[in-house]
Specification:
By secondary structure, the protein is α/β, with parallel strands linked by helices. The protein contains 14 helices and 19 strands. The protein is globular. The structure holds S-adenosyl-L-homocysteine, iron/sulfur cluster and FE3-S4 cluster.
Length: 436
């Protein structure tokens, strides 16, 4: 028997890349690969990349530069680039870094095994098509049955038809595609058999899911009936696709966790229009109001871009005002980054120092809210899905229903249990709890 070859995958970007990396590792299992945690002993290195901001894409080229000497030492080592940079840059990657043997776009992962065979034989391989066939249909099975982390990602939708003026996703991931509900349910049952208790349904625009006749809420209601699946989350949503039944599901389906990531990007209608977001600050706030009416304790999170072309002080103040009104439990804010090929790339940039100052101002407000919400959890009883053991004896770590990281002291539960706990302290990035 030949020794298995070793595959090292480094994942950048969003949760969808995390999910895709798992599926690629499983597909490469069929080619005789096992995963390794170190690039040094790998026979193949795959970078699963992100193109969302300039820095993210540049990171990939610097990492490739660092990997090149490894290949000089070990000529049999194969280096591949997957993900959104692969899709956006294609053959340019091999021109810029000749150490790269293989470039595969996100919709072609089912072709990876054949591409690997081609590079093993000494060639190079490039595939950035948007093929007709469903990649997941061809990436069969979830690998050998084994225990896995109790919280898992499950991609149900890919691509985006919204074309926000700043965003590369519609170009790197293609048009919106939904996986059929039957396939998703099958995968969820399989995950439960491996010890999974919580799934996060993923999609670039997950609430536009239409693989179930009842849309995303129909899928959630069916998943809630799967025995052993205790918790459901979904991300990322667009405010315009929060339909009545999805909002109602937040009040009606106990398995649907009280946490929602609902990006708004800006609080200024003028900027929202220039971003092609097709909603206003007011319509966004109305959606939030309806969600809170359905599930009063829900914790919200959002994404913001500051320094979008032409953003004035008044526009920025409108964003601050929206944040004050919503009070997010978490929020991710970014400085606008010009992406080649997007409509906003042609427009006049805001002064970089102004954009930096705005980012700091917004982030300190968000951090203050985040801390206040965490502190308001002290004394409350929550349930925590235990994901791993902590550093200290008797300590276990997991997430509350609100997605807070919780350290449980003197915990008597096991990994995979859902523990009832009382929060006793709020620290910077986590909560401490006592097992009840
Ligand atoms: N599909 C999701 C997330 C897309 S990317 C959605 O629609 O919300 C994640 C976040 O990156 C976006 O919400 C946005 O805040 C940020 N982002 C996207 N393009 C960007 C750019 N060009 N510059 C800065 N931030 C960007
Ligand atoms: Fe990008 Fe907008 Fe689509 Fe989100 S909705 S992926 S920000 S184009
Ligand atoms: Fe990045 Fe692609 Fe995700 S650009 S954020 S990895 S969809």
């Amino acid at each position: 028997m030949t020794a298995p070859k070793k595959l090292f995958i480094k994942t950048y970007g969003c949760q969808m890349n995390v999910y895709d990396s798992e599926r690629m590792a499983e597909a490469m299992g069929g080619q005789g690969y096992v995963e390794t945690q170190s690039a040094d002993d790998a026979d193949m290195i795959l970078l699963n990349t992100c193109h969302i901001r300039e820095k993210a894409a540049e990171k990939v080229y610097s990492e490739l530069g660092r990997l090149k000497p490894l290949k000089d030492l070990k000529p049999d080592l194969k280096i591949g680039v997957a993900g959104c940079v692969a899709q956006a840059e294609g053959a340019e990657i091999m021109r810029r870094q000749p150490a790269v043997d293989l470039v595969v776009g996100p919709q072609s992962y089912h072709r990876l095994p054949a591409m690997e065979a081609k590079v093993r034989a000494g060639g190079t391989a490039l595939d950035t098509d948007f093929p007709e066939e469903d990649k997941f249909e061809h990436l069969k099975g979830r690998g050998p049955k084994g225990k896995r982390n109790p919280a898992a990602f499950l991609t149900v939708q890919e691509g985006c038809d919204k074309f926000c003026a700043f965003c590369v996703v519609p170009y790197t991931r293609g048009a919106e595609v939904s996986r059929p509900a039957a396939r998703v349910l099958e995968e969820a049952r399989d995950l439960v058999e491996r010890g999974v208790r919580e799934v996060t349904l993923l999609g670039q625009n997950v609430n536009a899911y239409h693989g179930h006749e009842g849309g995303l809420s129909g899928l959630i209601r069916d998943l809630a009936k799967v025995d052993g699946l205790e918790r459901i989350r979904y991300t990322t949503s667009h405010p315009n696709d929060m339909d009545d039944d999805l909002i109602a599901a937040h009040g009606e389906v106990p398995e649907l966790m009280p946490y929602l990531h609902l990006p708004v990007q800006s609080g200024s209608d003028h900027i929202l229009k220039r971003m092609n977001r097709s909603h206003t600050a007011e319509s966004y706030l109305r959606v939030i109001e309806r969600i809170r009416a359905a599930r009063p304790d829900i914790i919200l999170s959002g994404d913001f871009i500051v320094g979008f072309p032409e953003e004035t002080d008044a526009d920025f103040e409108a964003t601050m005002e929206l944040v004050r009104q919503v009070k997010y439990g978490y929020a991710y804010s970014f400085k606008y980054s010009t992406r080649p090929g997007t409509p906003a790339a042609e427009r006049t940039l805001v002064d970089v120092d102004v954009a930096d100052a705005r980012l700091q101002t917004l982030q300190s407000l968000i951090t203050r809210h985040q801390r206040e919400i965490q502190e308001s959890m002290v004394g409350r009883d929550v349930s925590v899905l235990i994901e791993r053991a902590g550093r200290e004896a008797g300590q276990m770590l997991g997430k509350s229903e609100y997605l807070h990281s919780v350290h449980i002291e003197n915990c008597t539960g096991q990994i995979g249990d859902i523990a009832k706990v009382r929060i006793v302290e709020a620290k910077t990035n986590s909560l401490t709890a006592r097992h009840l």
